[in-house]
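Appendix B. Extra example for self-study. Work through it before the problem class; the solution is given directly after the inputs so you can check yourself.
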Amino acid sequence: MLQVISLLLENKPGALMRVTGLLSARGYNIESLTVARTTDPTLSRMTIVVEVDSTLRKQVIKQMNRLINVLQAADLSEGPAVARELVLMRVRAAMESRGAILKEAEIFGARVIDSTLEGFALEATGEAEKLDEFIDVMRSYGEIEVTRSGAVAVSLEPRKLRLSSPVATGAGTKSQSTTGVLNG
Amino acid sequence: MSNLISGAKILLECLVREGVECIFGYPGGVTLPFYDALYDHPIRHVLVRHEENAAFAAEGYARTTGKVGVCCATSGPGATNLTTGLVDAMMDSIPIVALTGQVSSKLIGSDAFQEADTFGITRPCTKHNYLVKNLAELPQIIHEAFYLAGSGRPGPVLVDIPKDVFQGHYQYQPVNSIHLPGYKIHLDGHAGQIRRAAQMMWEAKRPYVYGGGGVLASGATKELRELVETLDAPCVLTLMGLGSLPSSHPNFISMPGMHGSYASNMGMTECDLLIALGVRFDDRVTGRLAAFAPHAKVIHVDIDPAEIGKNRAADLPIVGDVKRVLTKLNKNLQELAPTMQEANSGSRREWWSQMRAWQTEHPLRIETSTEEIKPQHLISEIDRMSGGNAVVAVDVGQHQMWSAQFIRFNEPRLWLSSSGLGSMGFGLPAAIGAAFARPEKTVIAIMGDGGFQMSVPELGTIASHGLPVKMIIMNNGYLGMVRQWQELFYNNRLSSVTLDSFPDAEKLAGAYGFKGRTIEKPQELRAALEECFAEPGPYLLNVKVTPFENVFPMVPAGGAINEMVLSQPKPVTV
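Solution. Structure tokens for the complete assembly:
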């Protein structure tokens, strides 16, 4: 089953590799992955959609949380969350069907971002299933070329971000780490 | 200008601040500036003969002391040679820091001489790794590396350092604090869960303690003993946990699992409460998971939340450091003792009489013969010499399992075994690390003739330092464990397991300038071991044992652990 994971991670070299490596080492196939900086430029937000056996979902989150660069890993498949995806598409359209294409685009809430004699460039956002339909409809009008962003998702309930506090260097092998709480 | 010091010296300064006394390593082109700084520095560098052994030696150091072991290698082949040791440390949760040289920053990505993507290659081999991009961040990274290696669930951390970082100069300011906001360590277990655990333990009729490497890592041996004695529960210890309860303790049963004792495995199968402490329900322990401890509720204590419920669901999970959790748990148990102890003394007596019956029914058997030296006989004689006090490093295979079965330990951190990864060639370099870490201890390396031949170059390290390691080869002329499986499961078609050439031990040792000897008669065994142990320097004792002896009990792959093969199956006559 598809699991949507939201990660908040440090924007450090190799952080992406650690996340994807963890998934591939366990044989999970990544359906989509998006990553970008947050308002804090030292942090990135990543949304991963991955095919995972439902019994292993908790384990995946725990493994993600083990990564030093990951500040928070959350399973958005549980609890309220929204996921959206962006589609950019070129559709080749004969003159007589241009009007119909624009009508359809409007129904799906898509916007025209470019118009040429050959056709249109369109953008649409929405849930993945809705975009699948949109693509199917557009394909019926002519040749299309599609780029999908993959899902970006956000949890609809506030989640506490638990971060570790600084420790003294050379604190030895059994140093105490206290946990502070910030709002995330 | 006077405050500017080189990156190499800054690195050494940081290592001193982390209490590093000894580095196992091998120099090369890009680490030249570092080795130049080491030349007149008090930190000791031990030159091994292969980088893989630098990692194993650092593990031996860490396993015997609990301190972070340090190894060092150059870029490219030096770094790639470290990887087996890194994975080994990862699997067994051993704290080591690996320092590798990298080609100069401006050459990275140009396929320069001895360039390899060490950062990428070692990402899955380490708990965390770093590529130092500029000298200013070096001190921070080094201290983070040591903190990560030694804290929480310990493990290997690698720091890849380009040559220009060693060579650069920087105004060094000691770093006094590190901040890893995403590194969560859960030390104190949940108080409510611990209280519930104490209640469950007193209520159980057949409680069973299953302790592993986490007990040693957290230094919880005293607490484990208190728990076991308060509850009067039988205790089994995994290959990683051996020594966390003294072997002579009446409640200690043996090791469970594939080559565990009959009583250990029957106890696992019949217990009604499994108290799992710092263990990960490894497949070599559980056998067929669905049939493992089928009647038991499970209390699982581990510092790594990802281990809880990974293989076996826990009825009562406690995430925390074993020592801290047990300290609280023992208090709770004591508080409940007045009301609970008496009530279950009857069921406890029954449980123990059942355990003792299993132990008597099928004890671990020490085979002996007057014609040949039986491997079990050899191991039990080594155990007699050690008396539970020596450091015993083993390699991987049959001798490792017999050693786990028969060698006793009076204290923790004497047993060095590549347990999770099962890396042949581990034993000798691990013993070298131990010899540097605990020079006051007798250090024994028990190896098969296969594993020893993977480690032969390290005889050079041993000779250079005159390390008094007792090297004992259990020589059966085969890759014994693989041969055992071929015999039992592949119609005895012995495919590429015959080691039919082996050097003359006396000459080999002599070539390195120390003593060695080969024996094959049981009558010679005791005297030969006494000579070996009396020798103030290194000693190589090659013991020819019965070639076709198999390790029993044995749980065939995919079997339940109570379905043990207890002795050699009778040949089928047609």
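Self-check: The first helix of chain B runs from residue 7 to 17. If your reasoning did not lead you there, revisit section 3.
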